Amino acid sequence: MNTRWMPHVTVAAIAVHQGRFLVVEEETEAGLKLNMPAGHLEPGESLQQAVVREVLEETARPFTPEALVGIYLASSPDKDGTPTSWLRFAFCGRVGDADPTRALDTGIVRTLWLTADELAASADRHRSPMVMAGVRDYLAGRRHALDVLCTDASALIAPARPLAPR
């Protein structure tokens, strides 16, 4: 039995336009929740490639990462009560216009542009505490150069074997 602790690695995008943050409303087991466009790092991609892909899938918008805002670790219980840990890399950057011909990812109900105050007021609907942590750090001016993240070429090769189910 493997007892090694392994957090799920995720990426998230912090995109701001005219003082409003791009968020998604998504279906979860706990009902409709608000989140930054976010998702799992997939085999064969860098963290930056993952956040570009996730934003496009969840918002139908192209995303250009400009800086790393922060790295966040949180835990929450899964369906059977077992704690699951999430390691999130949050990037800020620019989004382009939405492609009206592109469908949003499964589970994404809609995209919204909310102010920091509106997000804070809806904290009970956030997918995780990492949503407001990223907003606070962004507003505090936290930015780290993207070259702080190094991806070896060996990580950019997708494995030939099937992945374990999520």
Automatic annotation (TrEMBL):
Pfam families named in the record: NUDIX
The UniProt record lists the keyword Transcription: no
Keywords: Hydrolase, Magnesium
Domain Nudix hydrolase, first and last residues per copy: 6-136
Stored InterPro entries: NUDIX_hydrolase-like_dom_sf (IPR015797), NUDIX_hydrolase_dom (IPR000086), NudJ (IPR033713)
Keyword set includes Acetylation: no
EC number: 3.6.1.-
Cofactor field: Mg(2+)
Broad enzyme group: hydrolase
TM regions (residue ranges): none
One GO molecular-function entry: nucleoside diphosphate phosphatase activity
Self-association state and partner proteins as the record states: Monomer.
Family: Belongs to the Nudix hydrolase family. NudJ subfamily.
Protein name: Phosphatase NudJ
